[in-house]
Amino acid sequence: MSLFAPEEEKTLSFDEYIASFDTNQTAKVQQFVDWLGQYRGELVHNPWGEVNPDLEIVRPDFDAAQVRRNNLMAYLLPRLGRSKIFVVAEAVGYQGGRFSGIAITCERMLLDKHKTIRAHQITPITLQRTSSPTSLMLKRTQQEQGFNEPTDTVVWSAIIEQGIDPYDALLWNIFPFHPHKAGEPLTNRTPTESEQQLGWEYTKRLLALHTELGGPKSLVLAVGQKSADTMGRFGLSAIGLRHPANGGVNLYREGFAKAIGQFRKREVYRDFEKVLHMKRYCESCRQYCDEAAMFCPHCGQYTTAVEVERIAPEGDIIYPLAHYQLSYKDTFLLCGGPQIYEFRWPCVQRGIFAVLF
Q1: What is the sign of the dihedral through the CA atoms of 193, 156, 68 and 12?
Q2: What residues have CB less than 8 Å from 292, skipping those under 6 apart?
Q3: Rg (the chain; Cα; Å)
Q4: With contact defined as beta carbons under 8 Å apart, do 152 and 104 qualify?
Q5: Backbone angles phi, psi at 169, to 5 degrees
Q6: Dihedral over Cα of 183, 185, 188, 193: its sign
Q7: Considering the chain, what is the average pLDDT of its residues?
């Protein structure tokens, strides 16, 4: 299934879309979302477990908390096990995930009413709003179009501007619930230390689930240095970016672009390492030889180059290419050797390599 196919995929129902994923993956993500829905806290609204009838759609056939759980499922399933970039903010905001059910994502994006972000960039199926179009606590534009969050706009726009596939980026909050002031559900407040500690348990489980589903080691970016410091206290290294609020939009974009540029360079080195770190395999003896052995030391047959599964035995450090001491022979093979690989006469092969090397 193409994640960016146009209207035909938008006609899929939620159940049909979920059924298109591996059942084991779906079960694990569903378990995580259900776990999120169980939390209750003082001066905290849980988008996936609680409903405020003064602010949200209330109908016999509509459960706002269930809709948000569905929204989150549809968002996480194509990203967990795939995303290379995690963008993490401090907590859910009332204009964003509080009603959409998705971190750092507002309702207008889901409804395709946002100025720059399209709904298909979030999920390939249509998601629903949960804020009430008739609530007197909402402004007129919020009633008509759903909530819009400026920080969400900046974060999503930076992803699109850098040419990143939005399904390769996963957005999250350290405290994944909405902390608000007493008696003011449409406000935000800073999570307490105990709330951050509790939120870390959910974040840690999300990262573990990403790994369980075969996801790559991801670049973690924090929306605001405070978020980076919080994750650092829990042992997760993250690059802190200037928060977009209070005039920080351009600095956030610049910091994001710089971090992505460095990450892409690192990916290039990783890809080249895969080529450099090889063994040679003798089909006759059915055993691996030293990577410099063009011919098997046991039977004299020509060996083939194969990549080994372990890419960086030194650890997660990307060394300069000179560290790997690529020989002239291997340079030739990497650039122009495949044709010689196909040569079936061992004597001719030996002659060619004797002249070249």
Answers
A1: negative
A2: 280, 327, 329
A3: 26
A4: yes
A5: -125, 135
A6: positive
A7: 83
CA distance 148 to 140: 12
Largest CA distance in the chain: 87
- The whole-number pLDDT of residue 286 equals 67
Number of Cβ within a 10 Å radius of residue 181: 11
Distance between CA atoms of 194 and 199, rounded to whole angstroms? 8
| Sign (positive or negative) of CA dihedral 172, 318, 262, 160 | negative
Look up the pTM and report it: 0.75
Cα pseudo-dihedral 207, 41, 56, 110, rounded to 10: -10
The set of residues, in sequence order, having a beta carbon less than 8 Å from that of 128 and lying 6+ positions away, is 67, 70, 71, 110
Burial of 272 (0-12, 13-18, 19+ CB in 10 A): middle
Report the SS3 class of residue 320.
coil
What tokens were used for 296? 């098997």
Q: Within 13 Å, how many C-alpha atoms sit on residue 98's CB side?
A: 24
pLDDT per position as a tens digit, 327-342? 444 444 444 444 444 4
Render pLDDT for 74-115 as a digit per residue (tens, 0 to 9): 999 999 999 999 999 999 999 999 999 999 999 999 999 999
pLDDT range class, residue 322, cuts 50, 70, 90: very low
Which residue bears the tokens 């450099």?
A: 276
More confident residue, 100 or 357: 100
Task: Give the closest residue to 72 by CA, choosing from 171, 185, 166.
Answer: 171
- Looking at residues 139-154, what average pLDDT do you find? 97
The answer to whether the CB of 123 falls within 8 A of the CB of 74 is yes
- Distance, in Å, from the CA atom of 247 to the CA atom of 273, rounded to the nearest integer, reads 41
Bridge partner list, 282: 287
> pLDDT digits over 208-262, tens only?
999 999 999 899 999 998 899 999 999 998 999 999 999 999 999 999 999 999 8
- Angle at CA 55, nearest 5°, toward 51 and 59? 65
Residues in the chain: 357
One-letter amino acid for residue 3 of the chain: L
Residue 317 pLDDT greater than 60, yes or no: no
Q: What is the rounded CA–CA span in Å between residue 335 and residue 331?
A: 6
